[in-house]
Amino acid sequence: MDVTHRQMVWSHYVPWHAPFNTSSLVNRHYNFPTFQSAGDEMLDYKDEIRQAIRQGIDGFAVDVCVRENSTTYTEMVGKMLEAAEGTDFAIVPCLDVKTTPENQAARIKSMLDKFAEHPNYPVFRGKPLVFTYTWLAWTPAEWTRIRELLKADGITPAFVANIRGGFKPVGRDEVLTYIDSFDVLYSFALSGIDRVPVLQTVQVLREICRQHDKLYVTSLSPGYYGAWFNGRNDFYQPHYGFDQLHEGFLSSDTSDQWMHLTSWNDHDETSLLPMVFTSANPSITLAYANARKKLPPAWKDTRLCFAYHRELLPGTLLRIEALALPGTSDENTAVFGRIEHDGKILATLEEKQFTPGVFTTAEWLLDTISWTEVPYATPIVQIVRPGQPARTIRLPEIRLISGWLQNAVTLKVAETDLVDKVEASLAVSYNQHGFSAQCTFTAPENIQRLDLYRNDRPVAVFNHETNAQCILNLQATGTGTCEINLKNGKILYADRKFSQRGKPDFQVTANVVRSYGNRAWTPN
C-alpha cells in the first residue's frame, strides 16, 4: 500500500488491549471500551478496523515489544493485516523497548520478511514503513548501525522517529544528530510539560523536516490518564477537558500530510476509541481528520461536545468546557443551561454562541463551595439553532466526593450521544446474599442490553438471559490449570485474556470452564 502522497491519520495501537481482552479491563480501569467481543478474534479485529475508519483513522501503528531473539505481539500484526484485507486501512509495527542494534535489525528483518508484501502494509517513498516508540532510547550511532545491518540484507525501511522531550525541551541540535536515520517525524505525547509551548516545539520540528526533506506528522494527545486500579495512581499529566487534544490539532498546518493520534486503545495513556465515559471521541477524531484531509464535515449542524471531571471535591472549581465541531450549516448555534440537584438549581450556565464552520471552544467556571451536602449535580443544557426546536439535554452527572477521588476520568460527551425523551426507573434492594435490581426503560428502539453500575463499576447486565435470574460473578487467577464445574446453574459467559473460546486451551460450555496453561498475567 503506497502512502507516499496519501493523506493519513494514524493511531497508536497496543495489542494487550485488543477487543477480546475488553472484559478483563473492568477490574483495572474505570473507563473501558463500550463494544463487546464477538468471541472470534478475526471478527473483533474487523469490527475494530471498521470503527476506526468511521472515526476518520486510516491506519494503526501496532506496538511490538522487541526482546532478545523475539518480538512480542508480532503475530497480532499479522492477524490485523489479514483483518484489514479488502479495505484501504494500513497496519504497521511500532517498535518498543531497546535491546542491541544487532537484535533490533534482526527483529525488523523478520517482521518485514513476513509482512512487507501484504497489500495493507504501508510503503513510503518506495520503502516499507516502520514506526518507532523508543526512538530516542537509541543513539544516532546505534540507528546508523541498525540501518547498515538492514542494508546488508537488502532492506531499507522508512523509519518514523518519535521525537519528544518529555520534561526536557526538544533541542534542534539533538534532532539534527538523528536526521540521516529517519524519514518521518512524529511526537507520541507532545504536551508542553517541558514548559515550552506546544506550537513552538512543533514549529521547530516542522522546519527541520522541511529543510531536510522529511515528513512531519501532526501529533495529537489528550494527555496521560494513568489508572488508579492499574497501579498508576500518580499519573503525571492529567488531561484537562478538550484543551490538550485540541491544542495539538491547532498546531497542525495545512501542509501536514499525516496526523497521529495517541492513542487508539492504551487505557493508561487515554484511549480515543468509543469508551464508557468518553463517548465524544469518535465525533472529535472524525472532525479533526476530515478537516486535515480537506474533506467536508460529516454532519449538517455544528456538533457540540462537553467535557468536565466525573468526580469533584466540593468547594473546588468546576470547569465545564464546550467544543464546537463544525458542520455544513451556516447557522449559529447557542447553548445555555443550569446545574441541578433533585430539581434545585445550583448554578446557571450563561449563553455561549458558536460561529458556524469553525472549531470553537467555550467554558463555564463554577464555584462549588455551597455544594458540600450535594452527592451529585446534573448539568442540563439547552441548544438553540435557527428554525429548529430548542433541544434540552441532561448530561451525565458530576459526583461530589469528600475524600479520595476514585474515578479520575474526564467525561467527554457529544450532544448526539444522548437519547432524548427516555423514561427509565431503577429500583435496588439489598439482602444478606447480595442485591436485587429492577429496571424499566422506554425508548424508540429495542434495547438489547442494559449495564448496571455501582459507584461507576459495572456489576451486572440486564438482557434476556439474565432476566429474573440470580447472577454470580467470579474471577479466578493463577498459573497451571483451572477447571470450574457448575451445578444448578448455567455459565452465561467466560473469557480469558489473550484467549479465544473454543480453542484447545480454553473450553467453555453451559456447565464447565476448562482453562489450561494459565499464566500469572492471564486472569480467567
Describe, in short, the structure shown.
The chain is of the alpha/beta class. 18% of the residues lie in helices and 31% in strands. The protein has helices at 41-54, 74-84, 101-115, 140-152, 172-177, 198-211, 243-250, 281-292; strands spanning 8-13, 59-67, 70-72, 90-96, 123-124, 127-132, 158-162, 184-186, 215-220, 258-261, 303-309, 311-312, 317-325, 333-341, 344-354, 360-367, 376-384, 391-394, 398-400, 410-414, 423-431, 434-442, 450-454, 457-462, 480-485, 506-508, 512-518.
Describe the structure.
- By secondary structure, the chain is of the alpha/beta class.
- The chain has helices at residues 41-54, 74-84, 101-115, 140-152, 172-177, 198-211, 243-250, 281-292; strands at residues 8-13, 59-67, 70-72, 90-96, 123-124, 127-132, 158-162, 184-186, 215-220, 258-261, 303-309, 311-312, 317-325, 333-341, 344-354, 360-367, 376-384, 391-394, 398-400, 410-414, 423-431, 434-442, 450-454, 457-462, 480-485, 506-508, 512-518.
- Strands 1-2-4-6-7-8-9-10 form an eight-stranded parallel beta barrel, surrounded by five helices. Strands 12, 14, 15, 17, 18 and 19 form a six-stranded mixed sheet that branches.
- Helix 1 crosses helix 2 (74-84) and helix 3 (101-115) crosses helix 4.
- The radius of gyration is 25 Å and the shape is globular.
Number of strands: 27
Number of helices: 8
Query: What percent of residues are in strands?
Result: 25-35%
Roughly how many Å is the radius of gyration?
Answer: 25 Å
Summarize the main sheet: 8 strands, parallel, barrel
What is the CATH H-level superfamily of the largest domain? Glycosidases
- The CATH class of the largest domain turns out to be Alpha Beta
- What is CATH's topology name of the largest domain? TIM Barrel
